[in-house]
Amino acid sequence: MKKTVLTVLLLALYCITGLSQEIFERGFEGKNKVFVPKGSMGIGLSASYSNNGVGDENGFTLLPSHVGELKGSWTSVGFHPSFEYFLKDNWSIGLRFDYLRDIFALDSARLALNDDLAFNISDWNYQRQSFLGAIATRYYVPFLGSRIFGWFVEGRISGGYIQSKNYSVEEDGALHGTYDDQIRIGIGLNPGICFFVAENFDFEVQVGLIDLSMNRINQTENQVRKSSVWRFNAHEKIDLLAIQFGAHVYFQSRKK
Length: 256
Description:
By secondary structure, the protein is mainly beta. It is 7% helix and 69% strand. It is built from 1 helix and 8 strands. It has one helix at residues 2-20; strands spanning 41-54, 67-88, 91-112, 118-142, 149-169, 175-198, 201-221, 225-251. An 8-stranded antiparallel beta barrel has the order 1-2-3-4-5-6-7-8. A hairpin with a 5-residue loop joins strand 3 (91-112) and strand 4. The N and C termini lie far apart (66 Å). The relative contact order is 0.15.
């Protein structure tokens, strides 16, 4: 009986040892590990433009019985050039500049919280423009050893200046509102995917994942009253509003 138990244990141990020595490959380790070679330089550009109008003579109803009679427009323009140099295969460090301008004009709107409480908004305007610069680093990973498809992770330290104004037009034509000057310092982590359509030209899609920022806001109300505030923001989820589409041109200093 003891010999039978010992034999079974030895067979089980042999089977477990044999299984542990098997190498299971999922195929992520392709033959080609180099997506962009060392010594290459990349110049990138992403831009965005959006122009939207809402409402006509009768206005647009957004939420029945709550938000209606909407008339207005919204315009957004973005310009984002970048430069990177590859210190190692697939790993680069570079500079990035971001300019974004938003203009929102609300001609009229009716807000109703309930049957007895409702009010109208007219001639309300909001404008904002930002100038941000960043030091960024990227690491590229070829997809299944491909030299065409890959993904990357970008980390950046950014800082810059933001201007915004929020005002309405009174019946006598006077402007009533606030003007903000903002200094921003932030740290971000943005993953993305890219694919080459030519030997040295690719398209990419990038999305915001983690963004930590510190903001100092100086506000002036009606060009008289002044105040300031410190604000800390932390976003740790996929930001669909931060999706950017761009393109890169690469210049290789050597062949590999």
